[in-house]
Write the structure tokens for this entry.
Amino acid sequence: MVKEIIVEPITRLEGHGGLRIVIGDDGKVKDAQFNVTSTRFFEKFCEGRYCEHVPRITTRICGICPIPHHLTPTKAVEDAWNVPIPTPALKLRKLLINAKQYSSHLLHFYALAAPDFLVGPFADPALRNIVYVINKMPDVGAMALKMMDFGQKLCAEVGGKSVHPIAAIVGGMKKPMDEDARQKFLKMVPEQVEFTKKTVDIALKVIEDYWEVIANVGVVPTYYLGMTNKGVHDIYEGDIRVVAPDGKKMDYDVHKYLDVIGEHVPAHSYATHTYYKPAGYPDGIYRTNCLAMTNCADKMATPLADEALKAMKAKIGTDPIHHTFAYHWARIIETVEAIEVIAGLLEDSDICNPDCKTLDIEPKEAEGIGITEAPRGILLYHIWSDADGICKKLNLLVATNHNIAGIEKSLMHVAKQVFEDKVLDGLKLPDPWIK
Amino acid sequence: MAVKVCFSQLSSCWGCHQSLLNAHLGLLDVLPALEIVYWPTVVDFKLASLEARENGEVDVGFIEGLVRTKQDLELTKLTREKCKIIIAFGTCACYGSVPGLANQWSIEEVQNRKFMEVESATTKRIPDQHVPGFVDKVVNVDDIIKVDAYLSGCPPRTEQIVGAVQFLLGQKGFPMNEKTFCEDCVLKESNCLLDKGILCYGPVTSIGCSLKCPNKGDPCVGCMGPAKNTSEKVQKLLDMTKSLDYISSGDKKNLFEFLSLFLNIPLMAGFDLSSDILKQIKKRGKPDTPITNMPSITTEIATNLLAFLAKHPEFHEISNVCQTCPRIVGKGTMTKVKRDYEGLPNQEDCFIEQGYICVGPITKAGCGGLCIKVNATCTGCYGQTEWVTDQATRFYKTIKESFNVDLSKEEFFTQVKDPIGTFNKFTLASNRDFN
């Protein structure tokens, strides 16, 4: 008898979706689907809006990563209208996006992922969540909350609001940072650096505990899509880089994105399947975000993060790293870079410089493209402006969306491992930290 | 006993949840008092577990997001069935938010843009397998089910959400004292305000404030929250609240203040004395929400006051963002409508009088002016203070009356190229002209 396994909804994620795995009479996995069950059509209803207001609408695509959704369309409009931004604005934007990277990655690690590792993947669903972790490990819980709080408060300070910021504007930023605020956050940095180091230790212990899982489950060769700034890891400035399953790196100007990325619209998901166009679909399915970024980067931008990257590459021993569970490790490496970048920018009094916006700006009929690296992957906005600066058309390649095809591919791989090869039967799982 | 809470997430961005999680360490005070029966974002319970609950078994349901898919519609109805109280959580659930802008087009046009026309799409189709399908137009949650309370904001401020939860839990900011304010009152021996026919809430209010309003002849407005007991004057107060039509206008103002401070409603209603939540309670004449631990006579007094307000819509004046804005009005004059990319507004003067469109005058207060603090105009995310179809005309009329504006109606509207996105950005789904 054909058996259907349905998980509805997928929990501990942002967004809406379910999983559907079909197993045939012969015990073979016939189908594995990731059904994304909602979409809201930002591509359409941004038509007719002022181009400079699109960044105040698109933040609502994602409440966890609204900052990239604020900055990227701003970059796209600046690209279209050919508007430069003053250096203080560039620094403020980098501070803002790194503050987001920091809080988002920690939210992901502690609130969304850690319950699996700390409570155990097969624990009672009533307990397998951050609330229980906080109750049982109050020290770790309080530290995690203080780290997320720091990131979110810094976002709110620079961006105006941590959820759905408003401070960026075509041409720069609406306001520099206040000196008092800069000093206040600067004082908090040493504690955050300490917390980050403790988080690295926790992550390394988890990696040690779950080594067998990391090394054997969900090792799926795919392409990787990320951005680098001339080969160096960067989440605000740079161009597209693709890494082939064999490790070959290819760089593309963002303006050529239509040669690089295709969207296959599946019948079973409102989120499209993006893929590397030259390799075709489904061969060109790629993965994005932290592990893709560390696979793309020749090096990290900051010293501690670069050391951490080297340690991961040495331990796993392949390049690129196809180990799905190594995503958690890569995420922590990016977290280290984020706090290092934040510390450096807060030291720089130029972020308080009132020269933070280009004043004379003329809209023109043109198209523009902007990219940043959001916490869940590359984020690309392609905007068409008319002569009055009204948005005629918008195309979006949203960070989370880039992962859908890759997730489905990993799901198929793991479903076969679990249901056909019975890999879980022989698998050694460590004792959970919380019993 | 823990309060059973359900968070149902319709199509949305997760931002309201992020705003709640932004309470960070503050969560430790709130979470232990909740029994979370469904919250896919954080907890692993699946939909089937919510379906299996008895009707009305769950105390409070927070519905977040907008009704875009047929699945959203079903989840909305299911949540209503299972919960005693429904809170429309965030501007999407209250008014549709920015995705409601899609109501300018038919669902076919909207779907075609995303799935058939976008430049990066290669295989093109409208997904139809294991996906729920869309509703033709975005509708408000309260168009489908009865909503008990509205908590608007995109997102609602963290303090508001925590305040709402604490309100529902009967948690108070202050410990309830045994004794009432009357025992501390300078007027207790003679000249009691109640004897003079002035509404004074001393008989039901906790002792211990330092302000002591009666010292300067003003009545107690209940800042300290309810006392565990009532004073001997309580009967007098109760009698007065039974015939409120005869009180002075000053008393009526105090009555608002009393309710908002005493019942902790202002936090829940975005610091707004008569926002939607209060309106809802007024409509039914009694607070359905579990206001715990109050002496029954105190509850009776509060109920009488709410019943009075229910009959007197003239008291339902809603504060707008301008009333919480520190900028100076009266220095400049709007002679031309400026776009946000033009120049950079100074941080002291009213945006409107510097030529920029700021919809603060027609937008509900509650945000605390976050956008204004980083030099960005208000675009209306808390919803409008008055429900008329033509917000654009209302805006023009308001600014012409209250600000220096040297533009005729015709000149003004010629210069506003995107009236829908400017004046109905968050509320188009509530606009019957587009349904």
Observations:
- The two ends of chain A are 38 Å apart (CA to CA).
